[in-house]
Design a protein that fits this description.
This protein is α/β, with parallel strands linked by helices and 550 residues long. It contains 19 helices and 18 strands. The protein is globular and about 80 Å long. The structure holds 6-O-phosphono-beta-D-fructofuranose.
């Protein structure tokens, strides 16, 4: 780059006004302000596999559910604030009858703020792309929870084809050639490159919601180069924590002909630069589900009544999808350790486990479900008596309001993931406790442990130590609980979901300005008109795909 361009960039970076300041309180308004001032006229397109609202047929009518997904709870308030377009797989049994002729539905229902564009997938597509390559391959590969990844060539082909289908729809939905596309997760590793080919000026931010393994683990994937090439079509690749950014850069370094500038967390590959940044995801503050909650005492009364618990019972809760990465059986084993080493707690502690059904056609998930049922059954027979059931497991979907009710009724929440990108249950529990009471027991292998340092941090593989951590939670003085909870609440309040999205949008704005400055400086006379958005030749963009080898 010419020295003048470098100077200009330095000046630009020095002077760029920023709201990314810890003193700023991040809200939907902050996001709207960033869009208005830094990205005027920009169209925000979100792409994810899971849709934020699912319409299902139920009892002859249409029922609406919000899926159990950290991704959805994080992105929904952001997309509302940006009035964007969200493209996702329409998987509900009534999804097709609730869209218009463009496969659009305005959401949230009753108070529409953005457009949901549903994408239809056949059973074969879903099997190969979602269950197959994404969840039988990439999910265990990235989580390293000692479940072997399965790589099938036919799944990979379907994964490629479905990524291509989503790329077509992004181009179809783009209003001009410079949208901001926020791609979510491991279902779409190839999508950034496919979009980049057809909308070269788009800002593409890909957020990988799960861990990225070290390069040795990653190397077993037969399509590792294609995956890296796909992701490097992004302007920015985001992870929850720096450690995963480092693992990603190490993988690129090992397998791709690229130049890595560690100082700037930048990768130059194929004539393009991608930034690799950490953005710790979070939840909205205050959470919408909290608004309708009665006081904590009332939540506790309702939950205790529902499960027939005596008032002096200590209640611990766990909330997640039924997934082998969450360490559900491991926490049950820790309760067993607690009961063995401190039998005075038998009869006085109840563990309520909510486990939303998930990916239930995959054998690994079916096996886990059965293992949990068997464990709970044997455990309750061993330690239960006269209506006392030490573990209550509800393997069914719950609404956010019901879940917040349970959080508020609990003495402690246990998050014992074997490996987790972030884990939003930990943050939700903290956000739900406006009474500053309750203890969070948190796995050191969840990204959230980097922020919520005042939790009782545990190694989920060490059942005895986790049992002792449970004892600590059971006996922690009120003052200490309050101190810890207060500090964690400040962290979640300040690092909320608007900050997560806002930091990405700000980085997108910086990139856009940087590209413009670079182009103006490097090609002065001819390219001066570059900043003006040209007429968008959508037909050309849509046709590009056919000419480019995948
Ligand atoms: O943790 C990764 C993730 O994609 C989350 O972002 C999301 O909450 C969860 O998995 C949901 O999984 P699924 O969409 O397969 O139910």
């Amino acid at each position: 780059m010419a020295e003048t361009a470098r100077q200009l960039l330095r000046e630009f970076e020095k002077n760029s006004g920023t709201v990314d300041d810890p003193l700023v309180s991040w809200s939907p308004d902050t996001l709207r302000r960033i869009l208005r001032t830094e990205l005027p006229g920009a169209q925000v397109i979100v792409v994810s596999n899971r849709e934020p609202y699912i319409h299902n047929m139920k009892d002859g009518g249409v029922d609406l559910i919000v899926p159990a997904s950290g991704l959805v709870s994080a992105l929904e308030p952001v997309t509302r604030a940006c009035a964007g377009t969200w493209i996702a797989h329409g998987g509900g049994s009534a999804d097709k009858i609730t869209v218009d002729e463009h496969d659009h539905v305005q959401v949230p229902p009753g108070n529409p703020a953005y457009t949901l564009r549903r994408v239809w997938l056949s059973d074969e597509e879903l099997q190969g792309y979602y269950y197959g390559f994404a969840n039988d391959g990439l999910w265990p590969l990235c989580h390293i929870a000692f479940t072997r990844p399965l790589f099938r060539a036919s799944d990979w082909e379907t994964y490629e084809a479905v990524n291509q289908k989503f790329a077509d729809i992004v181009v179809e939905e783009a209003r001009n050639e410079r949208p901001i596309v926020l791609i979510q997760d491991y279902h779409f590793a190839l999508l950034p490159r496919m979009i980049r080919r057809r909308l070269p000026e788009a800002i593409i931010i890909t957020f990988w919601h799960i861990p990225w393994p070290n390069s040795e683990v990653f190397s077993i994937c037969p399509w590792r180069e294609q995956i890296l090439d796909g992701l490097l079509g992004s302007s920015i690749v985001g992870f929850h924590i720096q450690f995963h950014c480092n693992n990603f850069m190490e993988s690129v370094d090992r397998f791709m002909e690229s130049r890595i500038e560690r100082e700037h967390s930048a990768i130059s590959y194929g004539g393009q630069t991608s930034l690799v940044h950490s953005y710790p995801i979070s939840i909205e503050w205050p959470p919408a589900a909290l608004a309708a909650q009665p006081p904590v005492e009332e939540c506790r009364r309702r939950v205790f009544e529902r499960f027939g618990l005596s008032p002096d019972t200590k209640l611990f809760v766990g909330v997640e999808r039924m997934d082998y990465t969450k360490g559900i059986v491991d926490r049950f084993q820790a309760i067993e350790e607690l009961f063995t080493n401190h039998p005075e707690w038998i009869g006085r502690l109840v563990f309520l486990q909510i486990a939303a059904p998930s990916r239930g056609t995959l054998p690994a998930y079916q096996h886990l479900h059965q293992e949990c049922l068997d464990f709970v059954d044997a455990f309750n027979r061993r330690y239960g008596s006269d209506g006392y059931k030490p573990i209550i497991m509800l393997a069914e979907h719950h609404t956010q309001e019901e879940i917040y009710n349970v959080y508020r009724a609990a003495d402690a929440c246990v998050v014992s993931s074997l490996h987790d990108g972030m884990n939003l249950v930990a943050k939700e529990f903290v956000a739900s406790r406006d009474d500053e009471h309750g203890v969070l027991i948190l796995s050191t292998f969840a990204g959230a442990a980097r922020e919520l340092l005042e939790a009782v941090i545990v190694n989920p593989y060490d059942a005895t130590a986790m049992g002792e951590a449970m004892l600590r939670a059971l006996t922690m003085p009120e003052d200490e609980q309050r101190e810890r909870m207060r500090r964690m609440r400040e962290i979640v309040r300040d690092n909320n979901i608007y900050r997560w999205a806002g930091s990405m949008l700000q980085d997108a704005a910086r990139l856009r300005k940087r590209n413009s400055i670079q182009q103006v400086t490097e090609n002065p006379p001819q390219r001066l008109g570059h900043n003006i958005v040209r007429m968008f030749d959508k037909r050309k963009a849509m046709a590009t795909r056919d000419k480019t080898p995948a």
